[in-house]
């Protein structure tokens, strides 16, 4: 800023004065030249000041002024400022600016500092988080190994106390509706904000009705040790799989590449950046996947299948119950919460995990109504040791 403003002011003053001087020098006595010079100087200064005020450039001037006060022998900036996460999640960046900023990637893969990998828990909600006490309890004692981000309706005012893990973790948000592109925008916004913290390694999308079904240590180890880069449900056949494909998406997307996934996914840093930087698939999905093509079920799974198919787990680690039928999975109420119920989620599974099998299939579960909070707080700590 400094270098832009200062020469501008100099240029304005010097150029016209020189010209005037040259034309009058031959005919006027030196003293008159001096007086005229001074008058012109003053007049020009007044005009400049007014012009600047009038065009509202005064903020630029202020910025320039404050930066000139910095000593020029200032020490070089330390690495800290590049690796310390932003202390305030509220920023003034537009989505375009934010996505660009989030797509900046270091090319040297070895970090020159001790990087403790964190999980970013990203909550996509309408507003309140009725199950927040469960998450508080789940995260207690694991500070430094996780970050929280909350995207809610812009009208929602969060009022978590300073002691809460959700305190001031709200990101600048916009309206998002199920099945529409603005839902994917919200998810990319969450990813982009979380990418600004260079220590976040895994990004887990959650809703207000999600709960963890293992303690933090188990989930952290499972996720950090995963050889997959993306975990989310997959289905590439059937009416919902390929039936929603639109041929206009070719050549970017062909029908055999079309996927249906779950909105709730887990993704590592590498593929999170692919999602945030995408400009190839976004316009196709925006234009050709509109209800009843629910874009939030297709965009990321299809795009990632094309770009990084062999890194996908092709299964979800978020448990849901579709057995009751309908367009939405079952929502559980307080009477559903029993130890037997959790045995159904936790036991008797055998899932592919990395190059083998694991009895742990699901790390999270949904959907839980607000009324489940008290029974969950009773049963979960006992069941999951947290
Ligand atoms: C955003 O910009 C406005 C006006 O330029 C300013 O008042 C406000 O403090 C800024 N907010 C943040 C979070 O920087
Ligand atoms: C990954 O798994 C190994 C062996 O099971 C374990 O020792 C290690 O702590 C795990 N890594 C993390 C980050 O939990
Ligand atoms: C998931 O599916 C893709 C093809 O869509 C395949 O390349 C990949 O190996 C599959 N992943 C696993 C873990 O089977
Ligand atoms: C899990 O399933 C695979 C193949 O379906 C089988 O080879 C393996 O033994 C099973 N593991 C357990 C613990 O049941
Ligand atoms: C987390 O759960 C595992 C198994 O469920 C248990 O062995 C472990 O002690 C628990 N960890 C903590 C920190 O409570």
UniProtKB/TrEMBL annotation:
Species per Swiss-Prot/TrEMBL record: Carya illinoinensis
Pfam families: Branch
Database matches in InterPro entries: BC10-like (IPR044174), Glyco_trans_14 (IPR003406)
Annotated protein name in UniProt: Core-2/I-branching beta-1,6-N-acetylglucosaminyltransferase family protein
Main location: membrane
Keyword Glycosyltransferase: yes
Record keywords, A-Z: Glycoprotein, Glycosyltransferase, Membrane, Transferase, Transmembrane, Transmembrane helix
Subcellular localization(s) per the UniProt record: Membrane
The organism's place on the tree of life at top rank: Eukaryota
Any one GO CC term of the record: membrane
């Amino acid at each position: 800023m400094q270098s832009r403003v200062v020469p501008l002011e100099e240029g304005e003053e010097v150029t016209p004065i020189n010209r005037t001087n040259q034309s009058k020098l031959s005919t006027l006595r030196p003293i008159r030249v001096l007086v005229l010079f001074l008058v012109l100087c003053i007049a020009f200064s007044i005009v400049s000041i007014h012009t600047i005020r009038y065009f509202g450039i005064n903020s630029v001037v202020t910025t320039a002024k404050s930066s000139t006060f910095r000593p020029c022998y200032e020490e070089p900036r330390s690495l800290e400022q590049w690796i310390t996460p932003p202390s305030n999640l509220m920023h003034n960046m537009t989505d375009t600016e934010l996505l660009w900023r989030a797509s900046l990637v270091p090319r040297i893969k070895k970090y020159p500092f001790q990087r403790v990998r964190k999980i970013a828990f990203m909550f996509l909600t309408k507003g309140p988080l009725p199950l927040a006490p469960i998450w508080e309890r789940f995260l207690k004692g694991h500070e430094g190994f996780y970050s929280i981000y909350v995207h809610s309706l812009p009208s929602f005012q969060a009022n978590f106390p300073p002691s809460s893990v959700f305190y001031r973790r709200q990101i600048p948000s916009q309206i998002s509706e199920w099945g529409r592109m603005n839902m994917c925008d919200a998810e990319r916004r969450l990813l982009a904000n979380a990418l600004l913290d260079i220590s976040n390694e895994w990004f887990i999308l959650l809703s207000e009705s999600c709960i963890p079904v293992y303690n933090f240590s188990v989930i952290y180890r499972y996720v950090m040790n995963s050889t997959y880069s993306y975990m989310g449900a997959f289905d590439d056949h059937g009416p919902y799989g390929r039936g929603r494909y639109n041929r206009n998406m070719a050549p970017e997307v062909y029908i055999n590449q079309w996927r249906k996934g779950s909105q709730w996914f887990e993704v590592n840093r590498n593929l999170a950046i692919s999602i945030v930087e995408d400009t190839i698939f976004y316009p196709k999905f925006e234009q050709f996947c509109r209800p009843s093509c629910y874009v939030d079920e297709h965009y990321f799974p299809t795009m990632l299948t094309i770009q990084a198919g062999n890194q996908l787990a092709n299964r979800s680690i978020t448990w849901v119950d579709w057995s009751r039928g309908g367009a939405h999975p079952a929502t559980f109420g307080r009477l559903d919460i029993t130890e037997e119920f959790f045995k159904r989620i936790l036991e008797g599974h055998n899932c592919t995990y990395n190059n083998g099998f694991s009895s742990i299939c699901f790390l999270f579960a949904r959907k839980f109504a607000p009324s489940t909070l008290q029974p969950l707080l009773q049963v979960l700590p006992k069941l999951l040791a947290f």
